Amino acid sequence: MLYGYAGKILKIDLSSGKHSIENTPQKLAEEYLGGRGFVARLLYDMIEPGIDPLGPKNVVVIATGPLSGHLLPGSGKTHFGALSPATGGYGDSNLGGHFGPNLKYAGYDCLILTGAADRLSTLVIDNDKIEIFAEDKLQGRGAIEAEKDLKDRLGEEFQILTIGPAGENRVVYACISHDFGRQAGRTGVAAVLGSKNIKAIAVRGSGNIPVFNPKAAQKKGEEMYKVCFSKPGFKTWTPYGTASITGWANEVGAFPTRNFQTSYADFHHKINGQAIIDRLLVTDKGCFGCPTPCGKYGYTKTAVGSAYVEGPEYESIATLGGSCCLEEIEEVAYANYVCDQLGLDTISAGVVVSFAIECFEKGVLSAEDAGREISFGSLEDVVYLLEKIAAREGIGAILADGVKTAAAAFEGGSEKYAIHVKGLEWSGYECRNAPGMMLSYMTADVGAHHNRSWALGYDVSQSDADVSELIEAGAGGPMEISSPDGKVDHVISMQHSRPLYDTLGICRLQTMEIGFETIHYEEVFELIAGRKITWQEMLFISERIWQLTRQFNVKHIEGFGRSWDYPPERFMEEPVASGPNKGRFIERKILDNMLDEYYEKRGWDENGVPKPETLAYFRLV
Fold it and tell me: Which residue, 117, 154, 171, 397, could crosslink 14 as a Cys pair with Cβ 3.0–4.6 Å?
């Protein structure tokens, strides 16, 4: 008996419509735990080198973790993965909500999709009943609208994933939507679903998950909730959610503004967490089992349009608000809503749009190229570009492939304005004075994503500078505040701990934001799964997964290595334009020294490729 797991893997060949069910391997559970671990291992084993990420030979894996679906704080996470159309390498993303628990209640730890349906379809998993039906009426419909339509047709108890027009049109940063505002946003897994002609996946589960010691596990779960409620951070975190970090990021000079030309926005107070509460909020919204509902469901009204929307989260505020210079929270929220309907990752979308606007300002693009004049601070222009991207029309046909590809097409020096690593657009922290965070972005396996290692707080804690004095003085110069010394160890540590939550199938915010102790996860895992494993042993598994995803990129990206780990030239050559870090940048020689140290400690060669003995140590060969 595989306690804590549903115990089955559901495989569906979309080309034939046939499916098979097999037992979840004990070895897979022991060596990779679940969630992100299952996704990484299964993709590595199933995908052949040289395939088209948007072709039928790509594979989509949707996986839950051993703690998903149990009555524990934040246990609603689901992980998604595929060969990324954005980077050509390892791609994954995750979301909260209620889909993952229901997939387990239906009897499945993983859902694996291969092949491609011959027409746009919805996949319905109703416990042991599997059905695929044509979905012509939803073609071109917004992701939020499609979910409502399917809820009305199938029943409120079904938990539904949808893609929007962007996914149907294979925009490489299209996102998966769920629960009217939860998204698996990064790396373009929704574009892969679109290439497989899957508009939606609906699941209803009514079964049980076997638990080794049910009474003790229930008691421990109740204790964990009480601990969450008792934490000092509970009352300060919950009202604002992720938007609470907006003011802090701006104060320390990490808030991306004008396509990362600078790192400080004097309008930040109009788009922060307090602005959401004062001007948008209808109610808080949480995911399955959540004691700290960070989602903010609200109503926004602008000159362009009005909508109910969940959010904006901090990342959307940073990229749509800061990077695109939308200076009112209503405008940021509306742009967020447009992205949600179209099925676009707000992070990549905001960076792509701000890239296009800078290209126009710098003369790389003409009004004829763009289809009109475009400018920072214009919601109308932002929405125009988002709609063009999702439809792959005009300038959107180029922007739909991301800033790396677009810069190659535009030329004119535009690569300097393309803010990405490995082809994935940079998320919401400007870090020309934060070497630890810079290294986090550079070495993240999926590309420039903060999820893997959030070292910015550590960078700031190592600085003795008074932020208010720096803003006043406009001090400048490379690397005078935050030294790179000691940052590599911290980054590596976080690259094991943060993705571990995605492996277990739980939300990390209880620990990261309110100070919930990890010992509780050790204790409840033993009660649920019937085997003892320490947090340190879990971290070792997380490290094994990290090595595997690096090797995945070596396997699938021709010439992959050190050159893929560098940030854009802007961060190495162009000083920050304003704010507390005015004049600062990180010289390439500093980044090279950090990469040398990082590769050595990872057991990789000087090109960043895992050595044979490293792969053997982690039992990957």
Answer: 117
Q: Which domain holds residue 67?
A: 8-204
- The secondary structure of residue 336, as a DSSP letter, is H
Please give the structure tokens belonging to residue 85. Answer: 């159309």
The two tokens of residue 99 are 């889909």
* Residue 313 maps to a domain: yes
Q: What is the pLDDT of residues 199-256, one digit of tens each?
A: 999 999 999 999 999 999 999 999 999 999 999 888 888 889 999 999 999 999 999 9
CB of 124 closer than 8 Å to CB of 24: no
- For 93, other C-beta atoms within 10 Å of its C-beta total 27
Residues 315, 199: one domain? Answer: no
Mean pLDDT for all residues in the chain: 95
Kindly state the tokens that stand for 179: 């629960």
Residues 416 and 306 in one domain: yes
Beta strands in 369-457 (DSSP E): 420-421, 424-425
Reported as half-sphere exposure (CB side, CA atoms, 13 A), residue 41 has a value of 25
- Write the CATH number for 255: 1.10.569.10
CA distance 260 to 264: 9
In a domain, 210, yes or no: no
Number of domains comprising the chain: 2
The type of residue at 298 is G
In 3D space, the residue among 274, 314, 92, 122 whose CA is nearest the CA of residue 186 turns out to be 92
Domain identity same for 191 and 52: yes
CA-based nearest residue to 442, from 461, 462, 426:
426
Dump pLDDT digits (tens) for 119-177.
999 999 999 999 999 998 999 999 999 999 999 999 999 999 999 999 999 999 999 99
Q: Are residues 52 and 186 in the same domain?
A: yes
Task: Specify whether the backbone of 402 is left (phi greater than 0), alpha (psi in -120 to 50) or beta.
Answer: left
Q: Are 173 and 316 within one domain? A: no
Final residue before a domain boundary, out of 380, 408, 430: 430
Q: How far apart are CA 181 and CA 98, in angstroms?
A: 12
Who's near 383: CB < 8 A, 6+ residues apart? 304, 305, 334, 335, 338
The helix-helix angle for 435-443 and 588-602 (nearest 10°) equals 60
Give the pLDDT confidence score for residue 478 in this predicted structure.
Answer: 39
Judge whether residue 475 has pLDDT over 70. Answer: no
Beta bridge partners of 121: 134, 198
In a domain, 483, yes or no: no
164 and 298 in a single domain? The answer is: no
Q: How many CB atoms lie within 10 A of CB 614?
A: 18
Strand order in the sheet with 90-95: 18-23, 8-13, 110-114, 60-63, 78-83, 90-95
Per the CB < 8 A criterion, the answer to whether 139 and 168 are in contact is: yes
Taking every pair of C-alpha atoms in the chain, what is the biggest distance, in angstroms? 68
Look at residue 473 and tell me if it is in a domain.
Answer: no
Q: Please check whether residue 338 is in contact with residue 383, taking contact to mean a CB–CB distance below 8 angstroms.
A: yes
Domain boundary among 204, 232, 251: 204
- Answer whether 563's CB lies under 8 Å from 579's CB: no
| Model pLDDT, residue 482 | 53
pLDDT at position 422 over 60: yes
Q: What is the mean pLDDT of residues 432-440?
A: 95
Residues 159 and 248 in one domain: no
